[in-house]
Design brief:
The chain is about 50% helix and about 15% strand. It is an alpha+beta fold. Bound molecules: 3-thiaglutaryl-CoA. Belongs to the acyl-CoA dehydrogenase family.
């Protein structure tokens, strides 16, 4: 971090190795993402060509151990997520879907055969994965999913639909969650299996440099070995969502920081009534409020990351981080856009792009409302979900 916003020396809480990792991801984002993101966003393309570079940096499944994964800490993963999302939420989302959802489902719940078959290729970026939980009529309530897997001899046959599934149309493998006679189970589905189709959803006003898809499953026949043996019930997918939600805590602050720095630079250069905008008290109040929330947000992320590395992070604490940091980040990006005046509505500046992306980020992996209710339940002991 720099003194422009690290007002409380959060940097001093990081080790040399953590700072080095963060700086290497920041350099990658500055060189490979920032010069191109406006074009990718406008054209609504996910830049597949940068996947090998991300793999080379060890970003795919970076917090997983063995099977060709980098085995880095939760704090390292968080620092990387923040830097990637300072580039664009769509690029951080790719790393989250690949590492925290698809790879972590196989790593946590898979057989040795499944791990050996998929994880090394996924860590190298040779196989992209996706994670099919949400359905057209089951978003916040995944227990209402209709996708069903029935036994047919030793095989499984899957039928149903999934919606908002990141990267599905470019994925080689999909983790599909389905009802069975024994409750919700997970399946490792090669996307070339007959009956599997993935169609990008669009046009979108958010996450334009990313892909979200509808998936249709029509008599998708899988061998017995496709079942994730260790995932039984909704706990299976929720344990993966914890990983992705954790990354968002950091990522959202990366987008906020990038927006704040854009507004600060603009305010220092832009003259109105013969003085820089930054010299006006109203502008300084906005900048200070943004900087305070960014400092608090990163401190919260780091605290939760240290808990995670100590094996002590609880799901409701992840909700504290996701709810707070998404909520504050989107406010910061919108305020930054306002400080840029009319120029803020163009793709020449990042705040409105980040704010639009954060509309998705605050919605997926548990909406603001769901995380509020998880915390309401924690505080009162009364579940108010239904
Ligand atoms: P509930 O009865 O509370 O729980 C069922 C079982 O799951 C356990 N559990 C968890 N375990 C670990 N971590 C967590 N965070 C957990 N939350 C619940 C729970 O202990 C229980 O275990 P067991 O062993 O007793 O069976 O289930 P519920 O459905 O009533 O839970 C309520 C609620 C609202 C908290 C939950 O449904 C929820 O979190 N909803 C939000 C779902 C969500 O985040 N969906 C977004 C999915 S993102 C997506 O599909 C696209 S992936 C991203 C991309 O592709 O871009």
């Amino acid at each position: 971090m720099t003194e422009e916003f690290d007002l409380i020396s959060i940097d001093s809480l990081l080790s040399d190795e953590e700072r080095a990792l963060r700086d290497s991801v920041r350099s990658f984002v500055d060189a490979a993402i920032k010069p191109n993101i406006a074009g990718w966003y406008e054209d609504a393309v996910f830049p597949l060509e940068i996947v090998p570079e991300m793999a080379k940096l060890g970003l795919l499944g970076m917090h997983l151990t063995g099977y060709g994964c980098a085995g880095r800490s939760a704090v390292d993963y968080g620092l990387a997520a923040a830097e990637l999302e300072a580039g664009d939420s769509g690029l951080r989302t790719f790393v989250s879907v690949q590492g925290s959802l698809a790879m972590s489902a196989i790593h946590k719940h898979g057989s040795e055969e499944q791990k050996n078959q998929w994880l090394p290729a996924m860590a190298k970026g040779e196989a992209i994965g996706c994670f099919g939980l949400t359905e057209p009529t089951a978003g916040s309530d995944p227990g209402a999913m209709k996708t069903f897997a029935r036994r047919d001899g030793d095989d499984w046959v899957l039928n149903g639909s999934k919606r908002w599934i990141g990267l599905a149309s470019v994925a080689k493998v999909a983790i599909i969650w389905a009802q069975t006679e024994d409750g919700v189970r997970g399946f490792v589905v090669p996307t070339g299996t007959p009956g599997f189709t993935a169609t990008p959803i669009g046009p979108k006003l958010s996450m334009r440099a990313s892909i979200q898809c509808d998936i249709e499953l029509t008599d998708v026949r899988l061998p017995a070995s496709a079942l994730l043996p260790e995932a039984k019930g909704l706990r299976g997918p929720f344990e993966c969502l914890n990983e992705a939600r954790y990354g968002i805590i950091w990522g959202a602050m990366g987008a906020a920081r990038d927006s704040y720095l854009a507004a600060l630079a603009y305010a220092q250069e832009r003259l109105q009534f013969d003085k820089p905008l930054a010299g006006y008290q109203l502008t300084q109040a906005k900048l200070v409020n943004m900087a305070l929330e960014i400092n608090k947000g990163f401190l919260l992320a780091l605290h939760l990351g240290r808990l995670k590395d100590a094996g002590a992070l609880q799901p409701h604490q992840i909700s504290v981080g996701k709810l707070n940091n998404c909520r504050e980040a989107i406010k910061i990006c919108r305020d930054a856009r306002a400080m840029l005046g009319g120029n803020g509505i163009t793709l020449d500046y990042p705040p409105l792009r980040h704010a639009n992306n954060l509309e998705s980020v605050r919605t997926y992996e548990g909406t603001d409302e769901i995380h509020t209710l998880i915390l309401g339940n924690k505080i009162t002991g009364i579940p108010a979900f239904r």
